[in-house]
Amino acid sequence: MTAFPAADQLAAGIFVICLLTMGIGALIAVLSIRIIHSVCGLAITCVGLAGLYYFLHSPFLALMEILIYVGAVCVTIVFAIMLSEPDEPAKAEPRAAALAWSGVAVVIAAAIFWGLCHLGTRGNWPRPARTGDGSIAEIGKALLTNYSMAFELISLALLVAILGALAVARTGRTRP
Amino acid sequence: MNPIYDRLEIYLIAAAFLLAAGFYGLVRRRTLIGMLISGELIFSAASLNLMAFNRFTVQDPAVGQIFVLFIMGLAAAEVAIALSIIIAVYRNYRSVTTRELSELNG
Fold first, then answer.
1. Residue B48 has pLDDT above 90, yes or no
2. Chain B residue at shortest CA distance from A166
3. Averaged pLDDT for residues A18-37
């Protein structure tokens, strides 16, 4: 029983807006010519995805999605775009070959989409009873008990990634 | 009939769309950064799938959230490494288009 009369319709409308945000962002990310528009599309996708995470009863992951993807990953990619010049050349390959390759890519992507939709809608997924509520307190407890090893390994992986990134980007700096 | 935001199929279709879009971009993009962005879309599709199944078909709903958190951490590490490699490639070749990185192409 909800206090507000049209709460369900309102929630459904917000959900559809999140879905459309995600879909349009993904299309911008893969179809735009300039690479900076593509990064903006990725950021829009992640905002929509954060909304979907909220509807999946996980406000914690929605926050993390915006924090990590929009705040860190997209900004880092923008830095890399500023340091290199990744805009695609106008006529890198013949027009017929480009059309053929995009046709092949569209066909394969559509096949993947159709196949996964088929699997997802036909599957008879089980619905077991819930044992927990998935709150932030439970996530914290699980991170420090059952998954503490993986948690520490993630921090180690991030440290190695930072050191490796510094080492790789440093080589060749003294060259002309 | 559950409301639209409470059905597993909708989330699966959204994740399939993200995967298909990411795959299309991965095939069509001609620069390394564009391919990296498409790879991020594929990562997002995997995360959304995990979260959807975590919400609807798993007993303990904290597990999927933790795994998606790990995926995000690994994706961040992957982006850092990939971008530093891209910067190094750009310093050597003055270009990040995949067509020009053909030194090993005999």
1. yes
2. B84
3. 93
As separate numbers, helices (DSSP H) first and strands (DSSP E) second, chain A gives: 7, 0
Return the ∠ at Cα B25 (arms to B67 and A22), rounded to 5°: 55
- pLDDT on residue B93: 81
Q: Which two tokens stand for residue A14?
A: 């917000």
Taking an 8 Å cut-off on Cβ atoms, the answer to whether A64 and B69 are in contact is yes
Is A165 within 8 Å of B19 when comparing Cβ atoms?
Answer: no
In chain A, the residue whose alpha carbon lies closest to the alpha carbon of B24 is: A105
B25 and A110 in contact by Cβ < 8 A? no
- CATH architecture of the domain B4-93 equals Orthogonal Bundle (1.10)
Neighbouring C-alpha atoms within 13 Å toward the C-beta of A25: 25
Q: Which chain B residues are Cβ-neighbours of A116 within 8 angstroms?
A: 12-13, 15-16, 19-20
What would the mean pLDDT of A36-58 be, rounded to a whole number?
Answer: 94
Mean pLDDT score, A147-162: 93
Of 1.20.120.1200, 1.10.8.60, 3.30.1370.110, 3.40.50.450, the CATH number of A11-88 is 1.20.120.1200
The pLDDT of residue B17:
94
DSSP state of A66: I
pLDDT of residue A2: 58
- Tell me which residue of A15, A111, A108 sits closest to B11, measured CA to CA: A15
The DSSP letter of residue A174 is: S
B47: tokens are 């995360």
Query: What 8-state DSSP symbol labels residue B31?
Result: B
